Each structure stands twice: as C-alpha cells, then as structure tokens.
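Onboarding guide, step 5: your first structure request.
Type a short instruction followed by the sequence, for example:

Predict the 3D structure of this protein.
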Amino acid sequence: MNATPNPYTGQVEHQQRLDDAAQLEQRIASATAAFAGWSITPWEQRVGVLRRAAQALRAQAPELAALMRAEMGKLQREGVAEVNKCASVCEYYADHAQAMLADEPIATEARRSYVRHEPLGCVLAVMPWNFPFWQVFRFLAPALMAGNVALLKHAANVPRCADAIARLLAGAGLPDGVFGVLHIDNEQTATVVADRRIRAVSLTGSERAGSAVAANAGRHLKKCVLELGGSDAFIVLADADLEAAVAAAAASRFDNAGQTCIAAKRFIVLPEVADAFVRGLVHAAGQRVYGDPADAQTSLAPMARADLRDELDRQVRQSVAAGAQVLIGGAPLVQTHAGYPATVLDHVAAGMPAYAEELFGPVAAVIRVPDVATAIAVANDTDYGLGGSVWGADVQAAEAVTAALQCGAAFVNAPVRSDPRLPFGGCKRSGFGRELGRAGLLELVNSKTVYLA
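The system replies with structure tokens like these:
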C-alpha cells in the first residue's frame, strides 16, 4: 500500500494498492487490443471525445482542483486554472490535429510520393506530481488524436488524480482500453518499458527518472521523449521594465510553491537595475501568504512532500554557508508539514547549490553580473537547458541575447510557459524530444515514406 499524506495537514487521506502482475498484464493486453480499433477511428469520433473531455474538465474543475489540493498541495485557484488549461489543449488538437497529420506530398521523379503519419501503438506515459492534470493532457491530447493508445504511470503521490482522468475520459466516450492507469512502482515500470507491446515512452520528471527510463528504453530500442528538470535563467537587462519584470519573476518563482520545471530559478541581473530589482522581488516575496490551499487568501502553497522541503532547505543552508545572503525567508516554516516561505537569496555565485542545482521550491537565486556577455555565460553555465527569458525595452537587443541561450524555449519580456501551439522541450540534461505543437505531435507517429513509381 502506498500512503499519500495531505501536504498541508500531514494527515494520510488515501492509501493506494499497487497493481499485481495479473492486473498489469490485463491493462497492457487491453490497451494492445484497443489500438487496432482506435487507430482507424474516424477523425470525427476522436474529435468528439476530446471536445466532450474539454467540456467535462471545465464543468468539474473545482472538484478536480480539490483532488490536486489534497494530494500535492496546489492552491485551489491554481488547480482550477490548470484544469481549464487541460480543456484548452483538448480543444486545440481537436481543431488542428487532422491538418497537422495530413499526408505531405513531396515532388520526386515518381508518379506520386508523400509522407504519411501513422500511430505507433501503445505509449507509456510516466508523469510527475507537480501538474498532475496538465502534464498528462499535454501528452495525451495529441497522442490520442494521432491514433495511439496510452497507459499512464503517474507519480505515487497523485493516484486519485490519475483515476479521475480515467473516469473523465471514459465519460467522454473514449473506448475501453484506449487509456489506462497503472498503479505500479519503479521496478514494475521498468518491466512495462521493456514489454514488446509498448512502442514508445514519454516521461516528464526528474533527471534520475529520465536517465533510468531512457536507458531501459534504449536497451529495447523504444522511442523516448524526455522532459526533465530545469534551472531557467531570467536575465534582467539595464533597460528592463522593472515593474513588469518583478511581477513576472515573483509569479514564475513562487506560484505552485516554486515546483515548476520551467519556472525562473536563476535571476541574472545587470548592475544598473540589480538593487531595484532585488528590492522589488523581496517585497513581492513578502506579500506571499502561506496557509491552507483551500483558503482564497492563501498565496503560497505548501510543498508537495516534507522530504522535498527538507532537500530545498539543505540547498539554501549550504548556499548561505558559501556566501549567499538571505534577504527574506530562508528556513522551513515551523509547525507545518511541508511549508517553506518565499525566499530570496542574493549574491549567489558559482560553487553554491543555488547556482548549480535546480531549486524545486519557492527560492529565488539572484546572480549579479557586470555585463551582458557575462549574463549569457552564466545563463549557459548549467547542465540544464529547458527555458530562459530576457527582459529589456530594446526588444531586438533582448532577442539577440535569446539567440545565445542554450535552451529549448526562449522568451522576451514574458515568462517561459508551455503553450499547445508551440513545441516544448529542452536540451542538455533537461531532456530531448518535444511535446506540443506540430513537432510534439509528430514525436509519437511513424512518418512513413510512400513512393509510387
């Protein structure tokens, strides 16, 4: 049994029994059998399922947000926003997937030649707890529209969210077996990845999980898409609109208790604006009110687990011991299960955990640099390469900085975010492959060349 404590109260509210070997086999067999029918289902039927799913998501948003609140501590309003975003990705692929997957004519000496995009089969999705609905639907909507079937191995602390997704899709008319939930541990997951009936794996999660799954998938020659951690740079140039930059910085760093892979984590600031930016960020951190995620007045959620809070505290303490300055926060909230305050560390430098490691919680690391060239060098001085943003009034100059950033997504005067219309993914140790956009849709198809002499 896997116990899932409420992150705010610390009380165990649910215990999840893991699937046994017979249940696991039944779910894989059911998905395999369902693929034959779903892969040739008319577009109209697939579209109808996604549209009904979107309607159900919007209608059930408060209840689904309450599940997230109970399992991983998300603020109620943040949960509602997440569910509505899931509805939008369903609607986007309902509207656009058919055109994205249309045959592509290519002129050759043949009578006719083209590329046809065909589904792969059963895809295993290994998904994290921090956005327990969005991470699933951003994978699932394009995968289903492409004609694939899917099995979900969700994070161990959000089992009820996983089951809620399955119920919602069944209610939307998705045929039996097209989507299934696996309540399994890491050892069982390795067995599923190796199963010949699994054609591809899509994982969003930690470096450790990504490395293990990719190695296993590689041994069995399976397609793999990995979206892993990030330590995104947030570069504030000398001509930046500081009011806008501070507001975006605070939202990016402290929303979802800072537990977001694409959150801004390293704030790299030029000397002309450093003091003013830091003052603004400290003020914004001070406005964050920790409390019950169900309370509308709460603006800082608990972290998802106590062990995650303790690891963040270690990183902060070691960074301070190496010379970083705590301007606000900096220690776990007493008499809480997993509470950590909105924290700002100034004068972060190389050699500190706050410089080199991902801070997966509400801690902002400020790195002061003398010039733009150094800002770029510091931004790239990381093993991660998920996203980055640049803030400056001269948009062309800011865009030139993005061209030098080693990352999968670069934004100017906007925080990094995932959008159904745009490819999303990283480089370096942030993973490989893409989700969303046409590029993401084509990750989970066989692009077949057809040549008629």
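Each response can be followed by summary notes, for example: Residues 68 and 74 are 6 Å apart (CA to CA).
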